[in-house]
Amino acid sequence: MIIGTLTAILTMSLASTAAAAQRSLALADSDLAVGAVAYGTDSLTVGRALGAPLKADSAVWVYSGLRVFFVGSKVDQIELSGRRYQTARGLRVGDSVERATALYGASCVGGYFLYCRTDGISPDVRGIALEVLDGKIVVIRIGAVFDLD
User: Fold this and answer.
1) What is the tens place of the pLDDT at every residue in 87-125?
2) How confident is the model at residue 148 (pLDDT cuts 50, 70, 90)?
3) Is residue 123 part of a domain?
4) Are 137 and 131 contacting, i.e. CB atoms less than 8 angstroms apart?
5) Do the domain assignments include residue 14?
6) How far apart are the C-alpha atoms of 118 and 97, rounded to whole Å?
7) CA–CA separation, 20 vs 18, rounded Å?
8) Model-level pTM?
9) Domain, as residue range, for 60
10) Is 51 helix (H, G, I), strand (E, B) or coil?
11) Which residues fall within 8 angstroms of residue 6, CB to CB, at 6 or more apart?
12) pLDDT digits (tens, 9 = 90+) for 10-32
């Protein structure tokens, strides 16, 4: 009787752990950053953190493996396309989708690799969007990644 009860408890616990691992985890503001460059950071801070860009205009600064998009003088989106940079949780271009799921949980939108700043109640343009090819991440976008219009 005790062994049967323990087996049932262990089975329920493992099932609940697996379900929790598959849930979407809402992102925090601290997740919307690459090093010192975060969503909403001003362009002076970006320049101090990353140095002079390879190419720049008022809307986009281009670095090797990284582009920073601005609205006004504030960071709106960060795009990673090389392994040099990583997300706040350590995800890099070239990592597997399994690593993304381990770090961020399930996608907040079924069938895509999207991670939301808020979960459910209030829509928010901020999050993380991954482009994936053959199970590997090829581009990571952080910041304003959702079009709510």
Assistant:
1) 999 999 999 999 999 999 998 888 889 998 875 567 788
2) confident
3) yes
4) yes
5) no
6) 21
7) 5
8) 0.81
9) 23-144
10) coil
11) none
12) 233 323 333 334 566 778 999 99
